[in-house]
TrEMBL record:
SUPFAM superfamilies: alpha/beta-Hydrolases
GO MF annotations in UniProt: 1-alkyl-2-acetylglycerophosphocholine esterase activity
Alphabetical keyword list: Hydrolase, Lipid degradation, Lipid metabolism
Name assigned to this protein: 1-alkyl-2-acetylglycerophosphocholine esterase
Keyword Lipid metabolism: yes
Keyword Transferase assigned: no
Amino acid sequence: MFRWFRSSSSSALPRPSGAYTVGFVDYEWSPPSSENATNPPSHVLARIYYPSLPVAKHDPADPIESGWSGRSHWIPSASYYPGMEWGRADHLGYGYYLKMPWYISSPLFRLVAGNSAIWAVENAPPAQIDEMPAVVFSHGLGGIRTTYSSVCSDLASHGYVVAAIEHRYFVRWDEPTEC
């Protein structure tokens, strides 16, 4: 029953309002560094949204009703579901901000958002535009690089290149006085 509901509960995030279709690519920069306990890795992961040429094979004009199988998921990996990041049930996630235990928030979030599609095509050819202003987007709110996919896709549909940076390292304070 759960499997049927999950497969039939697909939804799409809001459609971008601009003139361009949207492409994206996930990119990780790995600068040379010496990694040790006092110098953690400094890898930077970002999802780059950009105006793209229409891709007929994967046209996301209506990813749900057309049965478009090439759509990209809003949440790129199960490891991002609340409370389950990096395989640790006690880790921060959306459930932490909702004050929910991970064993409730993780299945609930998977059910509600696990099959949501974004209005962008991975590795789509970029549009031929003379100028594409750049935007660096920082998600905040305990999110990930795809949390604001609707906002970033909308900006890209208006001709911007948007780099949504993922904040991979965090500091957790258990006492407000430590902040």
